[in-house]
Structures are given as structure tokens and as C-alpha cells.
Amino acid sequence: MTRLVEVPAQFDDRSFDQFAAAFAEASRNGERLLFDAHAAEWASPYGLVGLLAAGQAAGHRGTGHTAKPLLTAPTHPDVLGYWTRAGFFREAAELFEIHGKIPKVRVTDESELLLPVTPVRAAEDVHAVVSRIQQRASAILASELGLEPKATMGFAMALSEACQNIVEHAGTGGWAAVQAYNWRRTLARRVVVIAVGDAGVGFRHSLEPTQSRRLGDRWGDAAALEAALIQGVSRFRDPGRGQGLAGIRRYLARWDGKIAIRSGTARIAIVPPWDEDVPLKDGLPLFPGAQVLIIIPEQESTER
Description:
Helix 5 (123-143) packs antiparallel against helix 6 (151-170), helix 6 runs antiparallel to helix 9 and helix 7 packs across helix 8 (221-229). The protein folds into two domains: 1-100, Transcription Regulator spoIIAA, CATH 3.30.750.24; 110-304, 2-Layer Sandwich (Heat Shock Protein 90). The chain has helices spanning 16-26, 45-58, 77-85, 88-92, 123-143, 151-170, 202-215, 221-229, 244-254, and strands at 2-6, 10-11, 32-36, 42-43, 70-72, 97-99, 115-120, 174-183, 189-198, 258-264, 266-270, 280-281, 287-297. It is α/β, with parallel strands linked by helices.
């Protein structure tokens, strides 16, 4: 029997919990999953990376069958074209049995798509991702977001540390994508969005050997995210480790940026004044691995 998982029509960080709930419910009996995206109207980098993570998890559940999960592709030509240009289907082909006609469109580096969906499996992948994006990001950050040229180094660091989190903590591969677009939700400005995600072990499992005893009954997904993002805790005991997320926080604080991390059943966010997100959510639908969202907005003034 095949279980249906509907992909939200507007698939981004706001609708992700709806998707996670459908995924968790459909996964209970270990049956083959069908991800239905035929009615998709739009997907952010976060949505595309999250869908790949779900496909990765669905294919590694040890259910006894070897068939890949199914994916019904979007039917709207513009949506289908964007998902293709964004590199989604290039990665999805390894994870899903795809139903629907995929256009022969090249994965692109068009100006708004700073980094198409790109696999991150090892430290070499992180270096390749950063070097690929650094030159192009420099022009975008300066011309479209009004950031100082030196902000580009911090941007590359933020991207690198977010990707490095997959390599060091996930226990499996993941993906990164970066895009610039108009943020109409709470901010009528241009933004650059970084999305990084995987279906690995998640923050709680990664930090459990060193942190669970310290926190006792408080230990869980939310406590693990607080330890990692707020306290800078790492599973590595050697000095100087665990500063990656703290470094991202410092960079984003200077440029009024946002970071949100979802792992397991919890989600934590550093919320800038222009956003209305909740700093910490617990008891969310279970979803494997970790999903990171970083948003850097256009600056109202370049004098900082």
C-alpha cells in the first residue's frame, strides 16, 4: 500500500510543519510514500531542500522494500521550470521515482538563484559550495542588499558553517540552496535566503553524549537547539569548536538577519525586529535531521 504526503501549494518555512505532520503520519506503518506536488504553486529554497530530506528519510526507513518513494511533479509549467532550473530534479532523481514530464531545462546560475540546490556530503563539498558562491554573492550583497563589501566574508562564513553542520553532525548527506528575492511577508525589501537541510540524526542525538546528563529532565530537541545556538555547545570537546552557530549569530545581528533551525520536534529562531516569528517552539511534528534557514535583508541605509 502507498501512503500519500501532500506537498503544500505554497511550500516554505511557514507551511513546513503542515508537511512534516503529513510525513510523520504517513510514515507510521513503514509503507511506500507518495509525495504529491502536482498542485504546487511556489516553493522556497527551504521547501525544496526539505522535500529532498523527506525523500532521503523515506528511502532509509528499513521497511523491507527497496522501491524509492514516489513523487508527482508540479503540473504548472512555470513551477516545473523553476524547480528544474533550481536543480531540484537533478537531486530528486536519486531519491524518488518521479511521475510527470520534467522539462529539459539546464540547472542555472541566473542572478536570483545564487546557488541551485547543491549536495553537501563532505568537507570538500562545503569548500566547493563557498567558492562557487563567493564571487557572485559579493555583487548581489553589495548591489541589491546595500551591504558593505566586507559583509561578503561574513556571508561566506555563515553559509560555510551551516553546511559544515551537515558534515559534522548529520551522519548523512544534505543540501544547500541560496536565492535572492523580494520578501513580501513582513518586509517589503530584497533578501538573500540560505536554506540548508538534511535527514540525519539531528541536534539532540548529536549532542546527547555530552549534554543530556548536564540538562537532566530538561533534555530534548528544544534544549539541544538552545545549547547549540544560544550557548554555542558542540559535540566536539576540543577548544575552539562549537563557535560556528555563534559566529552566524554575530554576523546576522550586525545586518538585522534571521536564523531559524528546526530539528526533531523543535524549532529555534533568532528573530530580528522586522519579523514576527516565535523564538522557540516545541512539540512540533517529528521530522528527521536539521533544517536551517538564514535570511539577510536589504539594508535601509548603507551607513552602519
